[in-house]
Amino acid sequence: TIRIIVCDDSERERSRYVELCRELAAKHHLEIETKAYDNGIDLLFDLENPKFFSTVDILMLDINMPGINGVNVAKEARKCGYKGIIVFITVSTAHYENAFDVRAFNYITKGKSSAARFEEVFLNAVEAAKELRQEVIMLSGGGEFRQIPVKDIFYFEIVKRIITVHYKDESFEFVSTFEKLENQLFERGFLRIHRAYLVSLAHVKSITYEEVTMTNGALLPVGRKYYAGLKKALSELALT
Q1: Cα 6 to Cα 34: distance, rounded to the nearest angstrom
Q2: At what angle do helices 115-135 and 11-27 cross, to 10 degrees?
Q3: Does domain 142-239 have CATH number 2.40.50.1020?
Q4: What is the dihedral of CA 208, 212, 217, 220, to 10 degrees?
Q5: What own/partner pairs with CB < 8 Å and gap ≥ 24 does 134-141 have?
Q6: Residue 100 near residue 5 (C-beta atoms within 8 A)
Q7: pLDDT of the chain along its 240 residues, tens only?
Q8: What is the CATH number of domain 2-136?
Q9: pTM for this prediction
Q10: Which ranges in the chain are annotated with CATH 2.40.50.1020?
């Protein structure tokens, strides 16, 4: 599910863009959730919570809002750690140059952008959001939140309900279940090789019947019932 926020002080415009998003989602068989704000201050208050901003995929921001304009909302959102897609809604092209400061994805010009143009921006934003979802995962443990690039993760290790993620030259502990991790990460190239280990296939250097050597030098045991699946997955990976 792609989560989209529309922030516009005009109720008419706000409702219009929310409805357009829903119509296009239905047309293209996409699962989305929308939430609307009538001002940037309330939006930023929510974005200060990592649990909230980590679930937001696309911000559609009206630039010309009273109090705090869309550009400044975007700047503050980036400072809070928001890494998602930003689409500006504007009445003119005067603010285009500010897009570079906040890595804006695109613009919709009120009263000028056609339905086809909105559809194009919407679909491209959704596709980019999906790609970003593949790039990082948000984990929380001990009152701390971490966004970790998926490509940097070597493996996950579980002891009871405490899971340790090993990435780069760091590790981080959090509470979850392997079942949940497997469901979230299977399509990103992660596979269970033991009741206590979930590994990134991209970081598997070599395997034997009893152990896996990871690219960071770690030696991990392979459970008997997981060996055939691991060998098959690596064979399929080698063909791509």
Answers
A1: 7
A2: 70
A3: yes
A4: -130
A5: 134/188, 136/83, 137/184, 137/185, 138/50, 138/54, 139/165, 139/172, 139/174, 140/50, 140/51, 140/174, 141/172, 141/173, 141/174, 141/175
A6: no
A7: 799 999 999 999 999 999 999 999 999 999 899 999 999 999 999 888 765 766 789 999 999 899 999 999 999 998 887 888 999 998 866 666 666 678 889 989 888 888 999 999 999 999 999 888 777 888 989 888 888 988 889 999 999 889 999 998 899 999 998 888 888 888 778 999 999 999 998 899 999 999 999 999 999 999 999 999 999 888 866 543
A8: 3.40.50.2300
A9: 0.61
A10: 142-239
Distance set, CA 153 to CA 36, 98, 134, 174 (Å): 35, 34, 12, 15
Buried b / exposed e over 107-133, threshold 16 CB at 10 Å, is: bbbbeebeeeebbebbeebbebbeeee
State the amino acid at position 85 in one-letter form.
I
